[in-house]
Amino acid sequence: MKKISIIGAGSFGTAIAVVLGHSGYSISIWAREKEVVDGINQDGYNPEYISDVELPKSVSASYAIKDAVMESEMVVFATPSHALREVAGKAKAHLTGNEIIVSVAKGIEQDSLMTPSQILVDVLEGAVLEDQIGILTGPSHAEEVSKFKPTAITASAYSKRAARIIQETFMTPMFRVYLNYDILGAEIGGALKNIMAIAAGIIDGAELGDNAKAALMTRGLHEMKRMGCALGASQDTFSGLTGMGDLIVTCTSEHSRNRYVGYNIGQGKSLQEITSGMNMIAEGVKTAKSVTQWSRRNNIEMPITDAVYKVLFENMDPKDAVNELMTRNAKDEIMI
Ligand SMILES: NC(=O)C1=CN([C@@H]2O[C@H](COP(=O)(O)OP(=O)(O)OC[C@H]3O[C@@H](n4cnc5c(N)ncnc54)[C@H](O)[C@@H]3O)[C@@H](O)[C@H]2O)C=CC1
Ligand SMILES: O=C(CO)COP(=O)(O)O
């Protein structure tokens, strides 16, 4: 049986352990929490994340990265993007150099402004080739993936070979994997839709209406394209699963943590109050900071991201942010 390692036993790491375990792979999952490791090994459930789904018998857990990674054909990093550099650095010494490396994280690293796959290329240099590194991303809430609800997602990589291996490995009748070789566009889409989902949540929480939400999603997609195209990504990628697809699900789903954060801000709570009550991560919070750093540094207009940043970190009232967006200079609609 082929062994696959999953580094990070949060919601999505657990969900893909279920998918891959049921496909017949032997899954070794690394968690930093003792109770998670014990729960998976002793009871067959992750007590902290996706705790209502029984894990296949072929899933085991470890808190030693070395044990989790040893003798694997594929290593999937499923921590939030801000933890990726550190955990990949810890895993590096235990790689043989033959593994396919996959990131499922959706974010942009602060200061370096790197995407998850770029972080992996940087950290794992000398251990694996860039051609062995890829991603899996798209509209895929862990709560639904783990219950075998039909999901379509995208694999991408720095080589066609790695992208195809990722596609073949994950594909099941309920988890359909497409290929897109524009890895940068796929990662920009995955990261930025989280910022837009915070904005969508604010609209819902403040009861600003369906028109506002449609406008936000459409103009948000435009902003995602603008950043992606400025960096050399393909505009078409943003019409696909990793762009529009993930934007739709995250802005509308009851499962979205980013939308949840925005909703509660729209209801008048503070960011600190909201995040201190969550055991899961809403990547859009940190990504709003990184993308604002990027847009200001490069003088690229990203008004929605900027508004989310000001609400999250500069105490701007969401109603003032909406007013600022609505009263900008008149514009042509189609202009990247
Ligand atoms: N939850 C979902 O439906 C999906 C999530 N993703 C992405 O996958 C990544 C992981 O998300 P989730 O599993 O949902 O997060 P989560 O919040 O459910 O779990 C995060 C996991 O990472 C671990 N972790 C957090 N900080 C860490 C650190 N500094 N060092 C080591 N481990 C750390 C936690 O202990 C936990 O096991 C994120 O980038 C997210 O955007 C992608 C697709 C779907
Ligand atoms: O990326 C996701 C769905 O595709 C998960 O979104 P949230 O992190 O907002 O829950």
UniProtKB/TrEMBL annotation:
Active site, renumbered: 193
Domain Glycerol-3-phosphate dehydrogenase NAD-dependent N-terminal: 3-162
SUPFAM superfamilies the UniProt entry points to: 6-phosphogluconate dehydrogenase C-terminal domain-like (SSF48179), NAD(P)-binding Rossmann-fold domains (SSF51735)
Residue stretches spanning the membrane: none
Catalytically driven reaction(s): sn-glycerol 3-phosphate + NAD(+) = dihydroxyacetone phosphate + NADH + H(+); sn-glycerol 3-phosphate + NADP(+) = dihydroxyacetone phosphate + NADPH + H(+)
Positions with a binding annotation for NADPH: 11-12, 32, 49, 106, 142, 257, 281, 283
Function summary: Catalyzes the reduction of the glycolytic intermediate dihydroxyacetone phosphate (DHAP) to sn-glycerol 3-phosphate (G3P), the key precursor for phospholipid synthesis.
Family per record: Belongs to the NAD-dependent glycerol-3-phosphate dehydrogenase family.
Name assigned to this protein: Glycerol-3-phosphate dehydrogenase [NAD(P)+]
Organism of this sequence: Rhodohalobacter sulfatireducens
Gene name per UniProt: gpsA
